[in-house]
Amino acid sequence: MNNKKNTIVAAAVAALSLITSNTVMAHGGSPNYIKIEDSLKSSGASFFYDKTAKEVHIALEKVHACIKVGAMEAEVNGKKIHLDAPIKLEHGNLLVESGFANDLFEEYVPQTISISDAKHPLDPLSQAEITLTQQTVQASKYFRSNLRFTEIKLAEPEKSKVWAWSFGQKEDFQRLANFTILDGKQVIEGTINLETKIVTRWQPIKDVHGMVILDDFVAAQEIVEGSKEYADALKKRGISNVKEVVATPLTVGFFDGEDGLKEDDRLLKIVSYLDIGDGNFWAHPIEGLVAVVNLETKSIEKIEDSGVIPVPMKPNPYDGRDHKNKASVKPIAISEPKGTNYKISGNTIHWQNWDFHLKLDPRVGPVLSTMTYNDQGTKRKIMYEGSLGGMIVPYGDPDIGWYFKAYLDSGDYGMGGLTSPLELGTDVPPNAKLLPATLADNSGAPYTIPNAIAIFERYAGPEYKHNEMLGSGAGNQSRARRELVVRWVSTIGNYDYMFDWVLLANGTIKLDVGASGIEAVKGVKTKTMHDATAKDDTRYGTLIDHNIVGTTHQHIYNFRLDLDVDGEKNSLVELNPAVEKNTSGGPRKSVMVVNQHTVKDEQEASQKFDPSTIRLMSNANKENRMGNPVSYQIIPFAGGTHPIAKGALFSKDEWIFKRVNFMDKQIWVTNYKPEERFPEGTYPNRAKTDTGLKVFIEDNESIENKDNVLWITTGATHIARAEEWPIMPTEYVHAMLKPWNFFDQTPTLNLPAETMEK
């Protein structure tokens, strides 16, 4: 809804009359005008245009600015600020002088934050570049009015050239845009040269189904509301007004015809909920009723009805409206009185010894690139690119409304496009910096998601501590640990997924994934566990409310991590602690040893992770001062609040295993190939076979001293409990990458003794 709102606002701006008067800057000369969103991008400010008053309202944390179009001054927190040039409106775009953001926020933004338009070869497409891509396709010989975009994003340049540029070498980069289009059910990939404005590639892709797009959500609701057959099924359940029914469009999976569906058809399955006005329609499932809709014919293909289960009608609000006595909570003050310890320059972030590039991908969300660590003046490579690769949420119930549920959220729906704007003080702490992101909608037009990504620093306990009381020791020595957090949330239907990329000054990278939102629940006849129906109704889940079962499922996440540990040539090394017989004398009967093994090929690297062992991405070409190869430790399971998903809870002959293999192994290593992006394959919707990691490792290439990509899988098995209903407190899983002989000593010995206000 937020995305749609921004699109509507943009359309309203475009419909206004144009202000085209020539402008002269107050200090002489002609102003250099840029789009307002480009000016505000690095500051993280959001804006809204009031077309009635012809005023632009801009918000940045506790700063609010109001500027009339054409005026030479702005009101910032009630104070008048003179502008070098007025805001103007041309061809539907609000334009400001290039120094506008600096002038506006100079007094309020700490100087450690750089508001600039610094360029990086991996910068995402700008609003103008997305518009140019859309217009180039529309002007081409290929264009038809029914074409719908599922993705427009940068065609990324060659990895070696980007690394070279990051280390100061001059490189020329051509800006290209890749796009994916749906022509009915036909998927088409293409490329635009943004300099020549020419479509250089138009490639229909055979035998695949594209992503589910926002237009499909709208179509599904309309199809259901217009069906007499569906209305009749609702009447059997005492529902007479189809407008009170919320249809949720779900991918149908692949069962080789065993589900009675044709592989070639572009289909969705609709399970529905009754909106009774309590703000939580998810608590009122219309159980046992599934509509299969054909998106091409805009009709219901068939209705599956396993019998009437009464809709749970008890109001179940989760916004606190039924709790009049609110908890008494005193505020916690978080302040940075001297400014932040990080700097933002364009899309590049600098904190402590870390530097990295950040952007939002429409499919997988945040992408952190060209990540380096400054080790006492030496800039060292850590990771070329890291992001979510893909995720799956498979359910274990075989009933007609559940057996097909195995959501490939990023591959089927595009999680970046479902970004949930963040709110200060609840989603993130008040000191967070909120950054917008610009993506393309289904028509190919750009829209901006405000507050899409947050960056903030937090206290995280002692970095280290020792209190020496003997000899001439230094007494108590402790240092505060700081963490830099990059946070993003994506909402896919009932679930909200929070992804934190956490950097530590000691070189550690943490990956924390939280799940919140509303559980997908099943309506049942059982009210309490003492009912005769309880055993059958709770076979595949937990009774978490009267007539409501939380069905057992899994949340499994795979991260694509192009680690380049001090260089591109890396190997996977196993360290396996073991007990051996003592042969060295003395009273000990046994000894502890660590057996080391270098993994030879891709198929050997595909393995389940045992937390009692150590796995390293190691660079045998570089050593620390003791002669140990520099490495990073791989930890797919670093604690969590639900049982870990050691693998998929399915038998090996299950259909989902024919389509998705990444969920069953925690470590995969493949040779770097830029086209191998997604562990489930590029087009997983209704795929009958795995086109991802299973295919990537079929050639079983050597991974010894190669440019490799690490794929780690983590996740949880979600067994529901009453405390998670009607809304689930955020439940986390964790993974980690930790330096292992990468440094010569403790890398944080230079931390000052006091960094916290007392």
Report on this model:
- With 758 residues, the chain is mostly beta strands.
- It has 4 domains: 2-105, 2-Layer Sandwich (Copper Amine Oxidase, Chain A, domain 1), CATH 3.30.457; 127-205, Roll (Nuclear Transport Factor 2, Chain: A), CATH 3.10.450; 214-305, Nuclear Transport Factor 2, Chain: A (Roll), CATH 3.10.450; 347-740, Beta-galactosidase, Chain A, domain 5.
- Helix content is 12%, strand content 39%.
- The protein contains 12 helices and 38 strands.
- The strands form 6 sheets. The protein has a 19-stranded antiparallel sheet that branches. A 5-stranded antiparallel sheet has the order 2-3-4-5-6.
- A hairpin with an 8-residue loop joins strand 32 and strand 33.
- The longest helix is centred in the first third of the chain and has 14 residues, at 2-15.
- The protein is globular.
- It is an enzyme of class 1 (oxidoreductase).
- Residues 34-107 form the Copper amine oxidase-like N-terminal domain.
**In total, how many domains does the architecture comprise?**
4
| CATH class categorisation of the largest domain | Mainly Beta
Instruction: Give a quick account of the main beta sheet: strands, pairing sense, barrel closure.
Output: 19 strands, antiparallel
How far apart are the first and last residues' alpha carbons, in Å? 43 Å
Query: At the fourth CATH level, what is the homologous superfamily of the largest domain?
Result: Copper amine oxidase, catalytic domain
